[in-house]
């Protein structure tokens, strides 16, 4: 019989804070216990069971090596809901919500608009648009079968039915279809960017794209006009220092009303343009 004293939850958290961020430690301990973070505040004196402690220690070690909390818990908050994520998907970022907001401004409520989300990953953008515009029809595309599995699972969990998912490279699966709006958060980091090491757990194809990071955006900007109705919009997320270059690409592709919007930290984040002919 194992008579080893079991520590209390507050003691386990104090120890964990010496190795990783306090917020991360609390999230991971709650995950190991299959409880909410709020529950921990009221149960600090509870004794942790051996199996839960083992689960937490494993998570703690992985986080200390740099693995993102979202991959350890399999969940990430985005927009008004929580999404499943995996190593097949990019982790949704808060700044991408600007892309959703700008898209919604161009999708009248109640209209049966057609929308395409290129490189959907976990489905974050497509699901947010489908949720806020239930009359719209959203097509979510990704080259990764694993990412599409996660996106489909998120759609089922949220009960969203006004989406379809297709596998393929950027706009290729769209054939001769036309849309009212095309949106994408494509890879836009330069291949040799030293910051990629900090993102090593996330799928490389979803992060970097060529020597200047703009290869995917060039493909999308060049091909999108053939898949947009007259007056349709293209919206692209990109890096903080790429606004000038992305505007030039959209203008060269024949887009009108081209502009770049900044995120909450006043950095260039989303460039958009309209097809007018």
What does this entry show, briefly?
Helix content is 35%, strand content 19%. It is of the alpha/beta class.
Give keywords.
277 residues; alpha/beta; Rossmann fold; seven-stranded mixed β-sheet; 19% strand
Structure characterization notes:
The structure is a single chain. Helix 2 runs antiparallel to helix 4 (50-64) and helix 6 (97-105) packs parallel to helix 7. The protein is elongated, with a radius of gyration of 21 Å. The mean pLDDT is 94. The protein folds into two domains: 9-66, no CATH class; 78-274, Vaccinia Virus protein VP39 (Rossmann fold). 35% of the residues lie in helices and 19% in strands. Strand 8 (256-262) and strand 9 form a beta hairpin. It is built from ten helices and nine strands. Strands 5-4-3-6-7-9-8 form a seven-stranded mixed β-sheet, sandwiched between helices. A two-stranded antiparallel ribbon has the order 1-2. With 277 residues, the chain is an alpha/beta fold. The N and C termini lie far apart (79 Å). It has helices spanning 9-16, 22-33, 37-41, 50-64, 69-73, 97-105, 124-132, 145-158, 215-223, 243-252; strands at 75-78, 81-84, 114-118, 137-142, 163-167, 179-184, 228-237, 256-262, 268-274.
